[in-house]
Amino acid sequence: MDISVQELAVLVGGRVAESPGDRRFKSARIAGAASISDAGDGDVTFFGNQKYLTALKTSRATCALVPDDFQEEIAAIPIYVANPTVAFSRVLAHFAPPPAVVVPGVHPSAIIGECVQLGPDVSIQPYAVIEAGAVIGEGSFIGAGVYIGRQVKLGANCKIYPNATILERCILGNRVVVHSGTVIGGDGFGFELVKGRHVKIPQTGIVQIEDDVEIGANAAIDRARFGRTRIGEGTKIDNLVQIAHNVTIGKHVILVAQVGISGSSRVGDYATLAGQVGVVGHIEIGEYAVVGAQGGVSKSVPPRQFVWGTPACPMKEFKVRNAHAVRLPGLVGRVKQLEKLVEKLSRQLGESPDADAE
Amino acid sequence: MDISVQELAVLVGGRVAESPGDRRFKSARIAGAASISDAGDGDVTFFGNQKYLTALKTSRATCALVPDDFQEEIAAIPIYVANPTVAFSRVLAHFAPPPAVVVPGVHPSAIIGECVQLGPDVSIQPYAVIEAGAVIGEGSFIGAGVYIGRQVKLGANCKIYPNATILERCILGNRVVVHSGTVIGGDGFGFELVKGRHVKIPQTGIVQIEDDVEIGANAAIDRARFGRTRIGEGTKIDNLVQIAHNVTIGKHVILVAQVGISGSSRVGDYATLAGQVGVVGHIEIGEYAVVGAQGGVSKSVPPRQFVWGTPACPMKEFKVRNAHAVRLPGLVGRVKQLEKLVEKLSRQLGESPDADAE
Amino acid sequence: MDISVQELAVLVGGRVAESPGDRRFKSARIAGAASISDAGDGDVTFFGNQKYLTALKTSRATCALVPDDFQEEIAAIPIYVANPTVAFSRVLAHFAPPPAVVVPGVHPSAIIGECVQLGPDVSIQPYAVIEAGAVIGEGSFIGAGVYIGRQVKLGANCKIYPNATILERCILGNRVVVHSGTVIGGDGFGFELVKGRHVKIPQTGIVQIEDDVEIGANAAIDRARFGRTRIGEGTKIDNLVQIAHNVTIGKHVILVAQVGISGSSRVGDYATLAGQVGVVGHIEIGEYAVVGAQGGVSKSVPPRQFVWGTPACPMKEFKVRNAHAVRLPGLVGRVKQLEKLVEKLSRQLGESPDADAE
């Protein structure tokens, strides 16, 4: 699968430098692709961001995709292209390992309950357990050790990675991807304090996930107390995210790793919550809103607003506040100086520097 | 299972409005229950909180439980009741899906080690693995794919959801619920730096969990270095919570999702830690204390105190501080104004505005 | 396994007090070891930290290891030793449960794919699934329900705990420990917004983990978009940690529970990230740097620097800022006082207190 630099240039529609040692350049062999800092002998890398120029100069890559107007001296053999990032995607496609071939069928060790409906071309891997009444749509893949509860419904072409768990009655649309270790449909966290004991409030609802949602590894999405916890179409959820009961996530939302959303809150379409954000219960985050990393959202956020901090406030305000906080020691000094001056002025005017005496 | 509005009114001890079109009202069919915003055609909802009035007016619910003195015009058919929230619980019980019937017994695919003691009426699901010497109390349920280590002891009527993991020698009381993906008894995180390498400190203790504890999905509770990591009776732990080695959690404590508690810390009875709170090691949180969401607790908290922030401080102080932080830009302006005034006054008095010259 | 106090003193090279009731002292039986607060009848504890003196005085331990110069009156029988902490380690070793004996071999229920290479003395536990082309090095242990993807390579003497998941083509060195529920090699979180939809960017790289790494329970380490997500030799990672695609973690790093590191960031050798720290993408944390708990790191951190806060800043600065924030209410009072004084002075000088009139 390795190719010469010349072949690589053709592949990406680029140009190899005319330079001394030309021949060596063009016939050098490339066997893999890597980032500037990871690349080693036989690797091609790419220069997509000016801030990596120093790194590129010391990179051990054999070859580098650079912009047409690139002028620097580098050790790697440059291939000049219009857009190094786009060109590198083509390189990656060339060097990507062949995807695993999944042969449809039910592994003999899988346990399939009564009245389970399996669509055509499903693949059920070893030690998967599918409980009674579940429906698995056409072309869906159920990984090894996955648990699918009774009456769960999966649409077509879903991919459930090994050791994920989907509990009873939850509903997933088409092309939903659930990564390993994730739990969908655990009980919502609802208790009532009765005579000094937390009594469980039954959680009888479900989780409903629309088409084209992807959920990372070891996330937890709780079933509703009643009705549905809902994840809208096209939303992408990263690893270790917590979504509580009766939450509604809109369409095409981005929830980065370790986000936590409390019960009954709503997140609008195209909103983005950065890593480790927390959201209290019963509020609404508007569409296209953005919450900065680690933000703690304690009240509703209007559409398209960018908030940050704990408690979260508009980004602009957060930055002003933060800038002032940084300068606070200076402000303290200025106040001290003023106090000295005013005391001096007061003394000159024969006054005791005590405003309250007034 | 669907019923008429009239039947629903009888079920909740309420009253349907006398109004034109009365007949249509009372015979309309209700097939499900949902929140105001989720409810659609054929659903009943409830109006339990004044702040949802606007939502109620645009709700697509067919029927709504409202308080006796409710006067607003709504599209849904109102049923008047003394307490809509309480009435709705009855509705939920009516529409709740029948709980899964668990037939006691050991699935032939479960692997049961030597000298395992299974109480009467236990249910061991497919591909569960129970290692030698474990004890499973009467009526306990071990879900599919669950791993129970050697010499683990479970009391009566525990419920361990699919793909949970309980490691060797840990002890669980009666009626303990462990949700999917949770790991109980992983090694505590203890290393000692010796000649530039982190050398593992053996973690030979256990986790002991008392009666009526419930633990959410994908949580992690580490075994003690020696002795026990202990979770007190009636405590409820949400998803993705981290409890380190030798921690002691009291009775009836609430730990909300993504909380993390470091080694050897203690949490008193009835304390509440809101979502994403972090607690350093070797401190004590008093009984009935409350830590606000995302709080970072770096020193012990007295009983009944409410703390917030990072580092956490009493709620009152946090609010004052935060209010001042919000007004900091204004304060900076005031200081600037003072500086101008003082300079002017000094000039009038023929003074150089330099206090240090004094 | 229980021993007399006299025998215990010999075991730790210590001395039992010459005191009235001597005989009772030396023949008392000790059956276990526990911390000062956990210890009960028949337990030995140790006094390693002055701050636990009060606790020691009320401890129910039968025996306590105390420093040679210890003078306090305690209820427990004191054994005097040079270093109680060190002595207690010996005690722990004595009372530690025998480690589980793992008999090498492949459980008949394990599913081993084509062309899998199993080294000598491997142990493959029940319901483990090892896909085609995987390599398991000598003496490695694969727990029950573990999933090992195709072409995964494990070195010698690795320990993979029950229900962990290692996905295709990832590479682990020697003596790597992976705790239960952890997922290695899930897809990186990479999407591109095209015509209003998040289109998945293929994640074709791997995770590479070097020798002597230990990873806690329910952690998630994503595979690289291309190339490798890399964890350096000797690094220790706690529970519920998130490591995004293309991150590079150096050697002998400590990542405490619930840390999250965003894509392509780098953490230098011997750095320490305390609990719940978050790190944005594409930055570098220098070697030996330390980030305080819950810190939010938004730009690169120089080697050996200690940073804290969100956004993280040098510890010293954070403390100054925090101290000033605590005193902010006082500062507001001082400014108010100055305003009054200046107004008074201005009035005396027949001036309107309006600097802008100038």
How would you describe this protein?
Three copies of one chain form a homotrimer. Chain A folds into three domains: 3-95, MurE/MurF, N-terminal domain (Udp-n-acetylmuramoylalanyl-d-glutamate--2,6- Diaminopimelate Ligase, Chain: A, domain 1); 164-311, 3 Solenoid (UDP N-Acetylglucosamine Acyltransferase, domain 1); 315-350. Chain A starts with a strand and ends in a 10-residue tail after the last helix. The model of chain A has no long low-confidence stretch (mean pLDDT 92). Chain A contains five helices and 40 strands. By secondary structure, chain A is an alpha/beta fold. The radius of gyration of chain A is 29 Å and the shape is flat. Chain A has a twelve-stranded mixed beta sheet. The first copy, chain A, is 18% helix and 28% strand. In chain A, a hairpin with a 2-residue loop joins strand 22 and strand 23. Chains in contact: A-B, A-C, B-C. At the A-B interface, strand 23 and helix 5 of A face helix 5 of B.
